[in-house]
Amino acid sequence: MKTTLSGTIAGWTAAGLGLLLLSGCTTTQKADLSRSELNCGMLGRTCRLLKPGTDDQMAFRYVNPTAKWAQYNKVMIEPVSYWGGDKDELSSGDQQAVVDYFNQKLNEELGKKFTVVAQPGPGVMKLQVALVHAETATPGLRTISMAVPQAHMLSNLGYVATGKFPFVGSAQVEAKVTDAASGELLAAVADKRLGGGSFTTAFQWTLGDAQNAMNHWAENAAERLSAWTSGAERPL
Asked: Contact at 8 Å (CB) between 51 and 218?
């Protein structure tokens, strides 16, 4: 069957529009993360316990198989730290802004499920979180690629080819949960997320994609820890 140029363009357009609909509500997406990309500065020797997670889990994770989750109903949240390297592009001001935001979001989300406390004690988990890296979206080009229909269609086609939307920002996190009193390791994770293809992200500030990733992680932490401590979900 003979294929015309117009037919090819029409096919690509249909594919792009289909992807546009599929990605329209996505503000953040999981990114590939290799073991060599792990920082491990905050996790230390805990890092060696991490194993690859499944699609709906963090990129790397460890859950203590003997942890007695049902005894915990309070959480102590240590201030988020930033572990970017010498080549990190963020200014000190932006680094402070993202950790301040992440602190606020973690306290907000976990406060919906647990009593947030400032001191160790019975029934208290301690959460330690490190932002390993945060990357800004490309100003201007990010807006065009998300907001202009033709450009957004090409962005979606680029996503099919590379697994990443163009000009987006990203963030990488490492975290661990311990018994606040004994220091027993309960769980540890590492993950990386990129900006998604939602129109709602088109006019956000350059660190908006990193912010959306932090929103996801804070909500995920609250939901998973609540499910584990309540017995609604087994921490497999």
From this structure: no
Cβ atoms of 207 and 169 closer than 8 Å: yes
pLDDT digits (tens, 9 = 90+) for 18-54: 443 444 446 778 888 899 989 998 999 999 999 999 8
Half-sphere exposure of 171 (CA within 13 A, CB side): 26
Show the tokens assigned to 49: 């316990």
Contacts with 77 (C-beta within 8 Å, 6 or more apart), sequence order: 103, 106, 107, 110, 116, 126, 127, 129
pLDDT digits (tens, 9 = 90+) for 52-68: 998 789 999 999 999 99
CB 226 within 8 A of CB 113: yes
pTM of this prediction? Answer: 0.74
Q: Does 143 or 192 have the greater pLDDT score?
A: 192
Q: Give every CB contact of residue 232 below 8 A, 6+ residues apart in sequence.
A: 226
Cβ–Cβ < 8 Å for 59, 53: yes
Q: CA torsion sign, 122 to 234 to 63 to 26?
A: negative
Output phi, psi for 70, to 5 deg: -65, -15
pLDDT at 72: 98
Is 11 within 8 Å of 151 (Cβ atoms)? no
Query: Which tokens in the block code for residue 101?
Result: 């935001």
